[in-house]
Write a structure and sequence with these properties.
Elements lengths: L15 H9 L5 H18 L4 E2 L4 H8 L4 H8 L3 E3 L2 E3 L3 H4 L2 H26 L1 H21 L3 H17 L7 H11 L3 H15 L3 H4 L11 H6 L18
Antiparallel strand pairs: 1-3, 2-3
């Protein structure tokens, strides 16, 4: 429940635990073992807040990853544990919480910045512009995923504007917030999205939303995930949103 990505080391597929699990599972391919582990980790990330899964059994998790006794192998290597009859993922807060992911992204940004400085010192002014362009491109991709804590409030306020304006309020507000955080993100896209809603609501349902009744308007999360906010809408004399 801390985002749509996992913090995985490149060396994870070659870790001793993967090799041991392969042997425990009758020689299962190590890449397949890693893939099934990723499936289990993803389930915990999406459905738990602290790595504690009450009322969930290892058999249920086996059905999720599609391999019998897979989670027993995870128990053996210490990547799962049973505590008070609950299935628990050890070290969950180190890798799966929102704060741990924020730290990982912040560290990556710092590494890019240090790389930029080192390349600038090594190449001098002759290649400085090229290095700056390459690093800036990487930083831009990270910026699209990582929103610093000081910008969280602005994004949440923007979502509240979206939710207030969205007609019908169909579907889960939390699902809509998650979709808004994943699909909209940047300041420019937030303004486009809010203005799109504003323009749709400023005209008739048939013109703005392509439906005859408000009950047929898609769920807010669907609207965001399918990027329907990028569709061109004939605007009226409306006041545009600006952040």
């Amino acid at each position: 429940m801390a985002g749509d990505w996992l913090k995985i080391e490149m060396t994870t597929p070659d870790k001793p635990e993967i090799l041991e699990m392969s042997q425990l599972l009758g020689g299962m391919d190590t890449d397949a073992v890693f893939g099934k582990c990723f499936r289990v980790w993803s389930w915990f990330d999406q459905h738990t807040a602290c790595g504690d899964a009450p009322r969930i059994t290892t058999n249920y998790l086996d059905r999720i990853c599609g391999v019998e006794k897979f989670c027993e192998a995870m128990l053996v290597v210490g990547w799962l544990s049973i505590e008070n009859e609950r299935v628990v993922m050890p070290n969950f807060t180190r890798h799966h919480t929102k704060s741990s992911k924020d730290r990982a992204l912040a560290n990556q940004r710092q590494a890019l910045y240090r790389e930029k400085l080192q390349k600038g010192d090594a190449c001098g002014d002759a290649c400085g512009d090229e290095n700056s362009e390459n690093v800036s491109s990487l930083e831009k991709r990270i910026e699209e995923v990582y929103i610093p804590p000081e910008k969280k409030d602005a994004r949440e306020k923007a979502f509240e504007q979206f939710w207030l304006a969205y007609p019908g309020k169909k579907g889960s507000k939390q699902y809509a917030l998650d979709a808004f955080s994943r699909k909209v993100r940047t300041k420019e896209n937030i303004e486009i999205c809010l203005n799109n809603i504003n323009n749709r609501n400023a005209t008739t349902l048939e013109i703005g939303w392509g439906v005859s009744d408000i009950k047929y308007i898609p769920h807010a999360s669907t609207f965001l995930n399918k990027k329907m906010w990028l569709d061109k809408i004939e605007s009226s004399d409306t006041t545009e949103f600006a952040l």
